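Note to self: keep these together.
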Amino acid sequence: MKFFKKLKGKLSINSENHFHEKGKIIITKNGPYKVSGNLPLAKEISLLDKDGTPCNWKKEEKYPDKENYFLCRCGNSCNKPFCDGTHMKINFDGTETATKEKYIEQVEKIVGPEIDLTDVESFCSNARFCHKAGGAWALTENSDNPESKKLAIQEACDCPSGRLVAWDKKSGKQIEPDFQQSISLIEDPGADVSGPIWVKGKIDVESEEKGGYESRNRVTLCRCGKSKNKPFCDGSHIEVGFRADNKK
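Structure:
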């Protein structure tokens, strides 16, 4: 219980009525993400520990508030993070390939003595917060150790894509970061790349052609244009060396 008291205000047991939905993201056909609802937009950097492993998040530049804006999805805008129409010049193929199945329908479950962990590998954005101290999976299996339990929960909650979710054994509910609806543009100095668009707080993500995806507390959307699981990030930004500042 001491750990949960320490994190009070940062993490909460998820409930259906906790979030106040207002924002929306529309995935335009072969074009940008249309964002509405005055959603805050900022850069967020993954901080590294002494071993070079991501261990925490830090907010950086905050963009001016706008009711509506368009975020680049092809990775080639000269006005990143915003769209400048380049997707039309390069004939960007933004075909969506991700499944519409709900998260819980895809999970692999890791059972531990104090907490459980669910994992949907296809959501992985390669943020690497789950690697510390042997990894979230092994920590979950050893969660009768208070320090292992603490680290397993933190690693799951720091996963921006929501690939990993920790579950409270007693209540059977998810343990989730307490996010307000907002969008962060991830920067990953450990891999020397710019990462995906981090969508927080159960913002609706809808396709012009395919309808809505499940609204989740945290998802990551591709902004390099190379994901094979569009609209979601699959870590391809690292493979292609994507940089939002256009440096190579």
